[in-house]
Amino acid sequence: MKTKFTLILLASVIIALASCRKEELPEPAVPQKPTSMKEMQVPVDFNWKTTRNLQVSITAKSNGLVEILDSKGNAYQKAFLTANKTFVLKFTVPTFEKSLKIKFNGKETSVDITSDNLTATLN
Fold it and tell me: How far is it, in rounded angstroms, from Cα 100 to Cα 91?
């Protein structure tokens, strides 16, 4: 009797395991990577430039050294400003840069890059 019970139990377990199959789902379609420039689909208004030219006009109420920095604190330009005279700096920044820091007489000011021509008045 014990042997029959063991065989029935073993057969039940084998049938149960054999009937449990994972349903195979179709794999989602993966877009093919383009192999040439002709195959790329780029929006018409996409700008391929990786840099932009900026012109920053700075006026200060006192003489001193001004630094134009990126968001990480790396200097783009340094210049000595004369009181009440506008100084124009021209330089190139990466297009991912959205703001600049202007450091003058120990004070740091953040300026958003909203156009290619920026103006700042410092105290």
Answer: 12
Residues found in the chain: 123
Residues of the chain with pLDDT under 70: 1, 17-21
Closest CA to 97 of 72, 78, 118, 122: 72
Token digits for 18? Answer: 């054999």
Task: Say if strands 87-94 and 99-104 run parallel, antiparallel, or are unpaired.
Answer: unpaired
Residue 4: both structure tokens together: 């029959």
pTM above 0.70, yes or no: no
Q: CB count, 10 Å around CB of 58?
A: 22
Asked whether the beta carbons of 120 and 58 are under 8 A apart, the reply is yes
